[in-house]
Amino acid sequence: MSLLDKIPGTNVYIGGIFTLRRKAQLEQASITHVLSVLRMPGYLDRDKELFAGYKCMLVEVDDVEDENLLQHFKATNAFIQNGLDSGGSVLVHCAMGKSRSGTCCVAYMMQKFQISPTEALEQIRQVRPIVEPNEGFMQQLDMYHRMQMTEDVESSPVYQRWMYQREVQLSSDCGQAPDADKIRFEDEHVSASSSSEPVDSEYRCRKCRRALATSKFLIPHRPPPHNEPFPAALTCAHLFMDPLSWMRPELEQGKLEGRLECPKCKSNVGKYAWQGMRCSCGAWVVPAITLARAKIDETHLNRGSDNSIRRGPGVGMPATRAEGRGLL
């Protein structure tokens, strides 16, 4: 590793803030564009001599896990590509050349070469082993990959859901329920493409058989490590769900917690706690919007002639989507 490291297959260089003082190295690398990814008030104005002769872009973000760097990927990718298309080379730097600059370089590599965050990170670490986006930035890179590196990030359901989760977390940290207009009822945002995804299970009110949810809206979680392996006898008593439109009359009341009733027979089928709830397995889930296993029946789908099997509470865990979805 040096102060100025060239990413394989590109004319993109990554480094720390002191790289800008290595004028001879910058000239030798034909640097024409500088992307600065850090928050230092007055940085460009105070150190004008460092940036003289370069086209510059400043993205003011802190190296903290809850910083939204994802929203800048379109602009940073375009800046890097414009620099390369002009025949020059691009320096991407933050304070240490580790997390923020590394994240922007990974995002560029992902879009340019249509590769995963892991693949891009491995290539960059060949020349700069210390590159390590913080956990929050890695989550954003994973989302960016699931969004297929779209330029229209804000229109992506993945991004919208993540922003909703951030809003809920902020409200819960303040001991309040989210504003009614901020609640995202997930079944109202199912796109035509996602509606074709396989559904493993359906959940119905045990009393009146009204359909309440499907596994598409199930939020998986894991028991804490101290409870592993997870005994079958301690199967979670609740299923954690996304907010669904039939819950609207209750969830929009502005209460921090309460009960959920079947919209047809009004029997109690679950509960919610915006500040979170500890599952019987020991896991803490925020927000906690649950269906009680004792109050519902689960029907397995897509199993040929066996698709009408009903399973009562306490009989294993349901098939779910990828681990970690919905956790804050």
UniProtKB/TrEMBL annotation:
InterPro entries: Dual-sp_phosphatase_cat-dom, DUSP12, Prot-tyrosine_phosphatase-like, Tyr_Pase_AS, Tyr_Pase_dom, TYR_PHOSPHATASE_DUAL_dom, Znf_C2H2_type. Signal peptide: none annotated. The active site is at 94 (phosphocysteine intermediate). One of its GO terms (molecular function) is zinc ion binding. CDD domains: DSP_fungal_YVH1. Keywords: Hydrolase, Metal-binding, Protein phosphatase, Zinc, Zinc-finger. Its EC number is 3.1.3.48. Residues 203-231 form the C2H2-type domain. SMART domains: DSPc. One of its GO terms (cellular component) is nucleus. Residues 4-150 form the Tyrosine-protein phosphatase domain. It is an enzyme of class 3 (hydrolase). Residues 302-328 are annotated as: Disordered. Pfam families: DSPc (PF00782). Gene3D superfamilies: Protein tyrosine phosphatase superfamily. Residues 67-129 form the Tyrosine specific protein phosphatases domain. It comes from the Eukaryota. Belongs to the protein-tyrosine phosphatase family. Non-receptor class dual specificity subfamily. This is protein-tyrosine-phosphatase. It comes from Microthyrium microscopicum. The lineage of its organism: Eukaryota, Fungi, Dikarya, Ascomycota, Pezizomycotina.
